[in-house]
Every structure is written in C-alpha cells, then in structure tokens.
What does this fold into?
Amino acid sequence: MKIAVLREAAAGESRVSATPETVKKFIALGAELGVERGAGEGASIADGDYEAAGAKVGDRAATLKDADIVLGVQGPDPEALAGAKPGAWIVAGLNPFVERTRVDAYAAKGFEALAMEFMPRITRAQSMDILSSQSNLAGYKAVLLAAAEYGRAFPMMMTAAGTVSAARAFIMGVGVAGLQAIATARRLGAQVSATDVRSATKEQIQSLGAKPIFVESVAGIEGEGSGGYATEMSEEYQKAQAELVSSHIAKQDIVITTALIPGRPAPRLISDAQIATMRAGSVIVDLAAESGGNVEGAVPGETVVRHGVKIIGAKNMAGTLAADASALFSRNLYNFLSAFWDKEANKPILDEEIGDAIRLTQGGKVVNQRLLG
Ligand code: NAD
It folds into this structure.
C-alpha cells in the first residue's frame, strides 16, 4: 500500500496534505509513503524532515508510481496523475460543486475520488472534518487582517492623552469560522455582536460574551439545521434580515461575514447601499468571497475600497497560516484513513455511511448523490 503526497499545484496554495508526524503514523499502520520534492516548502517543512520520518522523497513521477492513495489539499490535476495505480483513491478537498469537470475527469481516468468536504457531520467524523479545521483558522485570521487594516485600535484605552474607544465588530454567520472570529475579536478587546439564521447559535454567541442580533419577526432555522448546515432562507426572511442589518451595520467598525450554504452560492448579506452607511475607515472581511460573496463588491484575494470602507475578499485564508493549517488538515486525513484501516488487507476499507457520503467517482462513473441529484 503506497500513499503519495503531492506538492500542491494551485497558485498560492502553501499547505501540504501530510506532515512528518502523519507520515510516521501512516508508516506505523503499514503504508509506504512517497512525498514529492518540495511538497512541504510552503508550510516550512523540509524534504529532509519527511525523509527522517521514513518517507521516500522524489520527483512527481517517482512519487506517483504505483500509488494506491494520492493525498492532496486541493484536487490534483487529473492529467498529472500518471503512474498511480488504476482505481487509486484521490483524497483531498475536491470542491466538487465548483470543480465538476475535474470530478468527471477523475471518473474518466478510473480514479476513485473522495471529497473530504463531503464528510458527514456526525460525532465520529469530527476529527476528519477539514471544513472545521480550516474554517477555525480562517475565522481567527480574518479578525487579525481586519485589525491590521483598521486605522484605529480594537480595545478601549484610557490614556493621559485621552480615551480611545473600543472597536465595534459584527460577525455574520456563526459556524466554526464565525465562533472563532467572535472569540478573537473579543480577545483583542472589541465590542462584539453576531448574527446567524440558526437559532442554536444565540446561546453560543452569548457564551462567548458577544451580543446576538437576530431577526425575530420571521422564523429562522430552529436548532442546528440539517447536518448542522443552513439552507437558503425565504424571501420574507431575507427582507427582514436586510432591514436588521441596515440598522445595525451603520454603527459597526469591523464586519466579518462567514455565511455559506453548501452547494449554493453564498447568501448576499451586505449591499453597496449598506456599506455607504458605514463610517469611513471601517473594514469588512468577506470570508465567503470565493463562494460568491456575502458582500457586494468583494473580490477574492483583493482589498477594494467602497465609500471609504475597506472590503477584504478572503482567498484561501487558512493557507496564510500554512504550518498550522497543514498540521490540522494532515491529521484530518490521517484520522479518516486510519479509522478504516484494515490490518489484514493493509488498506482502508470504508463503511457505507462515510464512503457513500464522500465518494464522488467509482468504476469510471460519478456516483455521488449530491452531484447526481
Ligand atoms: P458553514 O460554513 O456552512 O456556514 C457558516 C455559518 O453561516 C453557519 O452558521 C450558517 O448557519 C450561517 N448562515 C448561512 N446563511 C446565513 C444567512 N443568510 N445569514 C446569516 N448566517 C447564515 O457552517 P459551519 O461553520 O460548517 O458550521 C455549521 C454547524 O455545523 C455549526 O453548528 C457547527 O458546530 C456544526 N458542525 C458539526 C460538525 C460535526 O458534528 N462533525 C462538524 C463541523 C461543524
């Protein structure tokens, strides 16, 4: 059983899908590890560190040769997988709804593509969840970026020269990233408020010392929502939410938006007209910029200024913390594969619940219900 760890090919991708720690652990399970030269560079891991952990470091062809499993942070180019065994597993964040052509190509080439972001939200799979591990870091970094771009301080300071007032931060979308953004903004001394469509988040917001701002006139999603996820809201709800945001946002200095709906474009939460009501020098970070954007005018990977307000469009935010992001991502992959490792067969054998949820392609076809349905 050979596992190949590729150097990420996507522009700006600094993470890596295995660390020396997980390499050692895979070897202890009985696997042989090949690591493409330079794979860990962006995450400050040297080739020698992988070698010391027991991996063979080589060029891409040597790494892929006879591989049974290919690991990636993002999906590798299907055309650049020559040498891997027929039917090899491609295990990575495959962004299936957006990268559908790539998924079709994995099928055509006979690979079994496993999309880690389709991991079901069940207790036993928590340690395998790349969305959680990466969103947590993204939420933290979003606040740091906002603080760096904000021309004022976050905490209230009483000085001999006068008082600096605390920044007001508003977090929209209180999933994993939003909760970490609240906690980080609080630690920096901001006055924090937050909103979500799921009623279960109200208590979580309060427990972090922030103020919940909720639409009360129209019912949101009671409890956690299906699988922990939100759905698209009714027109009536969206209208009530827009009114609520309009009255609240004009008083905010920092806004972090994180709202996502799986398989759909991110909901639009802030319009250009609402941005115009904010004080000049305020900062908005749109963590959903790559998924369609919560904020009108946000551009992934760029900072644009509208009405004197800086709008930071996030792009691969977790990747800017490449060492930690890689360590957590790699453990997610290890936790997943090791949980299903069959000692006798010396390979992982998936069960139905998780296998069916994450398997995109098999036997030359796309087989995943979320893509077919
Ligand atoms: P997400 O990234 O899909 O979305 C971010 C947040 O945006 C969510 O809280 C969502 O409700 C919110 N949102 C969507 N539309 C909105 C709108 N129009 N206005 C305001 N907010 C909106 O969510 P996530 O971070 O993946 O987490 C969702 C839930 O799943 C959380 O409760 C989390 O704790 C849970 N979870 C469970 C597991 C597990 O059990 N294995 C793993 C991860 C997360």
Summary: The mean pLDDT is 95. The radius of gyration is 22 Å. The pocket of nicotinamide-adenine-dinucleotide is lined by residues 121-123, 125-126, 129, 131-132, 135, 172-178, 195-198, 224, 228-230, 233, 258-261, 267, 269 (CB under 6 Å).
